[in-house]
Amino acid sequence: MRSLPGLITALVVCLTFIALPSTPAQAECGGPSVELSPNYGLPGTNATVYGHGFAASVLVDIYYDGSTKEDRIETRTTSGNGDFTVIITIPEGCQGHHEVFVQGKYASADTYFTVNPGLIISPENGPVGTTVAVEGRGFAKNEDGIDLLYYIDDNYETVESNITANSKGSWQTSFQIPLSPRGKHKIDAQGAETKAYEVRDAIFAVTAETSLNESSGFVGDLVTMTGSRFAAYERGIRILFDGQIVAADIKANSQGDWEASFEVPEMPAGEHDVTAEGDQTRKQDVGGLSFEINPGILLSATEGHVGTNVTVTGYGFAGGKDVSIMYDGGQEAIATTDDEGAFEASFAVPPGQHGDHQVTIGYSAGNIASAVFTLESFPPGTPQLISPVDRSRLGLIGRGVTPTFEWSAVSDDSGVYYRLQIATSDDFAASSIIASVPSLTETSYTLDRALPQGTYYWTVQAVDGAQNEGAWAATGSFRIGLLPLWAFIVIIVAAVVVIGALILALIRRRGTYYDRW
To answer: Quick check: 159 pLDDT over 60?
Structure first.
């Protein structure tokens, strides 16, 4: 019995030593752990993996639905405390529980992510008629008979049907938003195995809608915007062109519809945002439209005569650029656009063929805008012949005369020049023309050579700077020389002989007279 206290003491000491390592042994037995946040959702969800109790400063591999190399989705190094945190994206997969397995150097742990079926749409808002892409995820493997449902109030309509999921429970389709009131609308789905209440819905917000009757045009054009699904009787609606108010004080009707027109403001060429807003409707809820301003020009005169001063006004060009003003390809002026892409320049219309002519504007890279100027096509009047007078004779004998021709002046806004023709026949046949002077600016002309004896015909025509040809003047005629030279000599000789005879007769008569006395 004396040994009993000693045995008790020995037993207490042994139990103490046995109990001392009990706490670390329990920690070791608890092992590493893994948590997920969130631990449910659609494939594609970003989930945070928290790891605890692994060995310090070692690599750990994270696997999803398996432990092979193909199943590994992430690798991390633990901290000095054996912890790690990593974000993973849940891969494509069917609905149900999926293992997230973490393998460390000395230990492993796992947890589960629950895939729920759901929908993802793009875009999430827009007007009626918007085409929406829908992606279904987390449905049953190869599930068929899937219907896509669009809710209007508490009722729905099936917008797509007989959809089949793939082996991983995913599918895709698209549809157009049907006629429905402004606001949020639920989009749901159901299939042969998946109930509608199990599916995470998508929400599409039907916004107010605007449209333009033109998508492009020029500065100053009148464009009409139509709005729908604004608030009933909404006031203070205004149209914004790149943020600038171009129409205001518009009121919607009882259905929230309205229509208004505006002029395209003076802005540089290119795409511009056009939207609308009201007292109850934000522009963010309406969305924007695109309107392209094209470079354009206006002419102060679109028709006229040679010398007309034309002012060219340009809009919608790039700001701060030199532009060339061309007339039928010839440069007439240079201008520099202002910050809004506008310019003004003038030029005088040069001589040319009557009719249409291109006025083009462009940078060095080429022409980008044009207009048409029509050059007048009214012929000038008909000159009147003055000298030589019709049927007159020039010169006594046919030794050659250099005539000077004169005619009356003709006036024309495009300017005038004259054509002179001289011929030996009154039909002015090509073979009979002895002189053709094509461009005379004066109303007289002296021939550059003497004309021999004969009868000649002449006429004059007026042509203006637009190359409009007037009528030829009535033909005039004249004759060079009264007698041929030989006839003139004969006459002179005959006259001399006659005069000599007369003188001789007179002398003889006087001599007889004196002899009598």
So the answer is: yes
User: Which top CATH class is 296-375?
Assistant: mainly beta
Q: Give the CATH superfamily of 209-293.
A: Macroglobulin (MG2) domain (2.60.40.1930)
Question: Fold match between 31-115 and 296-375?
Answer: yes
In three-state secondary structure terms, 236 is coil
Domain 31-115 falls in which CATH fold?
Immunoglobulin-like (2.60.40)
The mean pLDDT of 238-251, rounded to a whole number, is 96
Q: How confident is the model at residue 366 (pLDDT cuts 50, 70, 90)?
A: low
pLDDT exceeds 70 at position 267: yes
The answer to whether residues 298 and 371 touch, using CB atoms and an 8 Å cutoff, is yes
409 HSE (CA, 13 A, CB side): 5
**Cα–Cα distances in angstroms (integers) from residue 179 to residues 122, 135, 429, in the given order:** 18, 22, 83
CA 363 to chain centre: 15
| The three-state (H, E, C) secondary structure of 249-281, written as one string | EECCCCCCCEEEEEECCCCCCEEEEEEEECCCC
How do residues 167-185 score in pLDDT, each as one tens digit? 999 999 999 999 998 889 9
| pTM for this model (two decimals) | 0.56
The fold adopted by the segment(s) 385-480 is Immunoglobulin-like (2.60.40)
